[in-house]
Sequence to fold (253 residues):
Amino acid sequence: MSSRCCATERRSPPGRSSTCQRWSIGILNILSKRDQAIAASAEIKEYLAGILAERRREPREDLISGLAQAELDGERLTDEEIFSFLRLLLPAGVETTYRSTGNLLFSLLSRPDQLEAVRADRSLIPQALEEAVRFETPLLNITRLATRDTVLSGVEIPAGSTVLIMLAAANRDETRWPEPDQFDIFREPRLHISYGQGPHICLGMHLARAEMRIALNLLLDRLPGLRLDPDGDDPHIRGQVFRSPTSLPVLFG
Fold:
C-alpha cells in the first residue's frame, strides 16, 4: 500500500517506498521518540500539501481527490482534517501489512510440509493467509471506549472506560479453535479478529490480503526451492505490540 501511495505520484519523495516506511515508523514511535514522530508528521504534511492543492484544482479518481471533494453536513473537509486522515492511513497501510507478510513467510518456512502443500496447490494460499494472521497476529491489541456500563465475564466496566482488547489472545481461544497454538493451514476456517470487528473493522483488510497473496505467489514463482537457511541467524517473531520477524535468512534454487 505504501509503495503505491508514493510511487504513483508525480511528486514522489526520494526513496519512495523506503521514505513512506520511514515516515510510518516515525509516526508510530510517538511515545518513545516524540521529536522523530513530529518531524515525520511535518514531512508528510509538506509532501501532501502540493498534491492536495493539485487535486482541488484538477480532481482525479483517487483517494485524495475524494477527500478534497467530500462534504460533511454541507461543509468541505479542511486541509488539516485531510492531512490528519492521511497521516493515520499511511502507517496503517505500511506497518501491519509488511509484518503480516513476514509472519506468513516465517510460519510457512518453519513448516516445510505446509509450505510444499501451498507450493503444489496455490488455491491453499487464502486459507494460509488467514491462518497466519490468526496464529501470529501482527497487531496484538487495540483500544476501545466503553459507551455504557457493562459487565464482561464478571468484570464491571463503567461507561467511559478505556478497554484494552487483546486480539492475539482472542485468536488463540481454545474454546473456538482446536489446538489454537498450532499453525495449521488445513484447519476448519473460522472468523478471527485480527482485522477487528464492527464499525471500526480494518479499512484496508482486503488490500492487505491481496498484497500478501501477490507477494507469496511471486516469491514461490521466482525463488524455486525457497527455504530457511540452516546456517543463518535463528529467526523468530518479536514485538510487544506490533510483531514480526526481524529478518528471514533463506536459500533458494
Remarks:
- The chain has two domains: 1-77, 90-253.
